[in-house]
Design the sequence.
């Protein structure tokens, strides 16, 4: 089964605006792993489930060529509209059937995406296209462990965030739990003996109330809710923003909250 929860045009533009670029700490971990296992040159990186291209752009300075692959044409259109990355090509396709010859890819990445793939078909395809000693890096963050801070009301803000997720629970795909579980099962299923899981990469940043609400809007479960009941979904966003601002005692949605995300990465290297 292919999950098609990111297809709508307006969902893609929300993605472009509100999704996070993976942190440099994680990028460095991935590149150091690739250097240690396979070494240079870094010729081709393929970013699977690239969405609007945040992770593809992060990889672009480090490879001769980056190809972003996604099943959603609207996501790819948004990615292609970002100027200044001449070595990136975006192609429509699936992680389970990759348009590359055997043993041709140095690095396969998937940022907040591998939980949507068909596990065994994706792993077989990764084994086929990776060069000997080539690597895969499946990264993401577990939203269970996101911390919010603003003066003394961080826990109450997190409580509001959890209540929103509770409203969206009936619209939440079981695959989201796979990501929150840091890809445990997928990690176990990787057939390469050389693999590791890096966890607890805590990344702090500021996010405005407006953008935090935008991030909620980007959730696949929010979009499923909106499809079923557009008015209630719109009301949920408005009331959530209002509740955040009231709790913080401010009026501007540009007010920044400190956010700590808990990133992880599954790393594996194909045998020689
Ligand atoms: C949660 S988004 C992540 C997008 C981006 N990598 C990021 O970090 O923001 C997941 C993306 O995976 C894509 N996707 C889902 N299943 C896929 C599959 N089987 N093959 C390729 N892409 C897929 C979706 O269209 C969506 O754009």
Sequence:
């Amino acid at each position: 089964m292919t999950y098609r929860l990111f297809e709508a045009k307006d969902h893609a533009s929300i993605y472009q605006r509100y999704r996070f670029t993976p942190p440099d700490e994680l990028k460095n971990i991935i590149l150091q792993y690739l250097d240690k296992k396979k070494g240079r040159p870094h010729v081709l990186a393929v970013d699977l489930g690239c969405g609007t291209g945040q992770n593809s752009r992060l990889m672009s300075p480090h490879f001769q060529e980056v190809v972003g692959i996604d099943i959603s044409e609207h996501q790819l259109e948004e990615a292609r509209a970002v100027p200044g990355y001449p070595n990136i090509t975006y192609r429509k396709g699936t992680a389970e059937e990759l348009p590359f010859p055997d043993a041709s890819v140095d690095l396969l990445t998937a940022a907040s995406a591998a939980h949507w793939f068909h596990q065994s078909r994706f792993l077989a395809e990764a084994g086929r296209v990776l060069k000997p000693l080539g690597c895969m890096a499946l990264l993401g963050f577990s939203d269970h462990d996101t911390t919010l801070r603003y003066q003394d009301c961080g826990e109450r803000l997190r409580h509001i965030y959890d209540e929103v997720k509770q409203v969206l629970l009936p619209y939440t795909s079981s695959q989201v739990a796979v990501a929150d579980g840091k890809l445990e099962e997928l990690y176990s299923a990787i057939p390469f003996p050389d693999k590791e899981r890096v966890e607890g990469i805590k990344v702090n940043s500021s996010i405005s109330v407006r953008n935090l609400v935008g991030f909620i809007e980007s959730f696949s479960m929010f979009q499923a809710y909106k499809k079923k009941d557009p008015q209630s979904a719109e009301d949920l966003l408005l009331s959530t923003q209002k509740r955040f601002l009231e709790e913080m005692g401010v009026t501007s949605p540009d007010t920044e909250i400190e956010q700590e995300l808990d990133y992880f990465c599954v790393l594996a290297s194909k045998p020689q």
